[in-house]
């Protein structure tokens, strides 16, 4: 009987100690508000700009190792894009960060080059292009690296997709122009795809011009007389970027 009582007392002491330890650990954990503030501080310290939160997934049982935030520059205008910031809790207790702001800055430059190639062949076309995901980028690649340096990484790790809408006068001629356009796109972008939709000039002016991207994608096949989907290249998941070195 005494042994049972001693065992019960010992169990109670151990349980109480565990509870106290858990409470102490809980007190050491930052609150959601503190985490959010620390993540924004990281971005502002790194880039010298102010940022806003679009959304954030905090640590939970399905994501125990860190937080994932989507953010954007506070002073953005006419731009609904966001970029990712990931905060990871390492096994040694340290906290590390990865973010995609470099891609956010470079994407309009990349898209501009993509559009210029398309419009070389279809001057009045509508081009909706962009990166396929909110990619994270290595610390060595910065917002001041420039297009050519960014391209070394992009050619290995970033996928570019697009929808292209164009008015055409001659179907056979347009099909040849699409082939030449694809050759030029392949020469500049190593991993990409496009969906091309051609319309009679009358349909293009009445049904396509002036419409937003969502409407056009939903209605893309309703009036088209030419359609082509094409993709090329593969992402190199083993690629490691080294600043200043060729790929």
Give a quick rundown of the structure:
With 247 residues, this protein is α+β, with helices and mostly antiparallel strands. It contains 7 helices and 8 strands; from the N terminus they run H-H-E-E-E-E-H-E-H-E-H-E-H-H-E.
What would you note in describing this structure?
There is one protein chain. The protein is α+β, with helices and mostly antiparallel strands. The protein has 7 helices and 8 strands; from the N terminus they run H-H-E-E-E-E-H-E-H-E-H-E-H-H-E. The chain has helices at residues 2-28, 32-47, 101-121, 147-157, 171-188, 201-208, 213-218; strands at 51-57, 66-73, 83-89, 95-99, 126-131, 160-168, 192-200, 226-232. The strands form 2 sheets. A 4-stranded antiparallel beta sheet has the order 1-2-3-4. Strands 5-6-7-8 form a 4-stranded mixed beta sheet. A hairpin with a 5-residue loop joins strand 3 (83-89) and strand 4 (95-99). The longest helix is centred in the N-terminal third of the chain and has 27 residues, at 2-28. The protein starts with a helix and ends in a 15-residue tail after the last strand. The model is unreliable at 18-27 (pLDDT under 50).
Instruction: Indicate the proportion of strand residues.
Output: 15-25%
- Count helical runs: 7
Compressed to H and E, one letter per element, the order equals HHEEEEHEHEHEHHE
C-alpha Rg, in Å? 26 Å
The global form is elongated
Could you give the count of β-strands?
8
Oligomeric state of the chains in view: single chain
Estimate the mean pLDDT confidence: 88
Cα distance spanning the termini: 75 Å
What share of residues is helical? 40-55%
How can the largest sheet be summarized?
A: 4 strands, antiparallel
Residue stretches low in confidence (pLDDT < 50, at least 5 long) are: 18-27
* Largest sheet: spatial strand order: 1-2-3-4
Structural class: alpha+beta
């Amino acid at each position: 009987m005494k042994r049972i009582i001693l065992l019960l007392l010992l169990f109670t002491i151990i349980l109480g100690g565990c509870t106290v330890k858990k409470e102490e650990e809980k007190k050491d954990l930052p609150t959601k508000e503190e985490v959010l503030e620390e993540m924004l501080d990281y971005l502002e310290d790194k880039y010298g700009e102010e940022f806003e939160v679009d959304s954030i997934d905090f640590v939970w049982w399905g994501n125990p190792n860190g937080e994932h935030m989507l953010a954007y520059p506070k002073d953005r205008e006419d731009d609904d894009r966001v970029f990712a910031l990931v905060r990871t809790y390492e096994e040694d207790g340290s906290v590390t960060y990865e973010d995609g702001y470099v891609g956010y800055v470079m994407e309009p430059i990349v898209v501009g080059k993509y559009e210029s190639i398309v419009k070389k062949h279809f001057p009045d076309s509508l081009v909706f292009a962009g990166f396929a995901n909110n990619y994270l980028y290595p610390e060595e690649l910065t917002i001041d690296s420039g297009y050519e340096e960014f391209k070394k990484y992009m050619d290995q790790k970033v996928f570019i997709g697009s929808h292209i809408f164009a008015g055409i006068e001659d179907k056979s001629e347009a099909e040849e122009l699409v082939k030449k356009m694809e050759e030029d796109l392949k020469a500049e972008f190593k991993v990409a795809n496009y969906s091309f939709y051609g319309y009679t000039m009358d349909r293009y002016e009445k049904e396509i011009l002036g419409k937003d991207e969502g409407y056009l994608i939903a209605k893309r096949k309703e009036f088209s007389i030419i359609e082509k989907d094409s993709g090329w290249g593969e992402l190199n998941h083993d690629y490691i970027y080294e600043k200043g070195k060729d790929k």
